[in-house]
Amino acid sequence: MRTACLPALALVTLALLTPWAARAQMAETAPSAWLPDGLSLSLGGGANLTPAYPGAVRYHVQGLPFVDASYRGSLFVTDSTLGMNLMHLHGLSAGLGFGLSGGRDHTDDALLRDTPDIGRTLQALPYIAYTMGEFEIRLRAAQAVTQAGQGGRLRASLLWRHRFNRLALTLGPELTYADRDYMRTWFGVSDATASAEHIRAYHPGGGLEDAGVELSGRYFLTDRWSIIFSTGLHGLLHQASVSPIVRTAIQLHAGAGVAYHF
What is the rounded distance in angstroms from the CA atom of residue 155 to the CA atom of residue 141? Predict the structure, then answer.
């Protein structure tokens, strides 16, 4: 299984946060004749490198598809999310998406041997953002729906987006708050597990989970072919960083791929 944190971040960075400058060039490219009017579509594939779980020292490499579709700037579909932009007014925008999170397997690390697996769940993904020129302030939430006991998170981002000829970049810091259910699902250790594993029980409350910086971009080889990439460096904070199942607080992810815009 895959974690719901950094692997999901890689997908979001690679797909949902495709730089606005890249989308601007797409808009200048004549759409394929067979596409319905108002539909924008990019397809491709690549791979990403992510920790086995939040706090792991082992990394996984996984191939992934790249899907970025929108209809009249309202409905959108990416690799892991289906949603709708509900408002866009004077730089202020808001929307709601739904997507599947990953999970965690007890075989990901010896420290997890007797911990319960964390299953995948449908997540509600609302967001609100305000854009000022090349800068954007964004709040994104992720709340478990089908397994509500997994809790939720709120991420605040300050994004800078710029276009350098064929290269479009997005760069910015992020800070994430997680509620008690989420923290106990991913970083907690029950009394029963502590007894079996001979590690201390741990029952964190809600609080700051991590802080980091994200960089994503798109390099246009032609009007239709492009290279997409992302990388991010995050540090687990406070209660998350001192969990007995966390081996390192420093978390890195990276991904790259190729996409074709129809």
Answer: 6
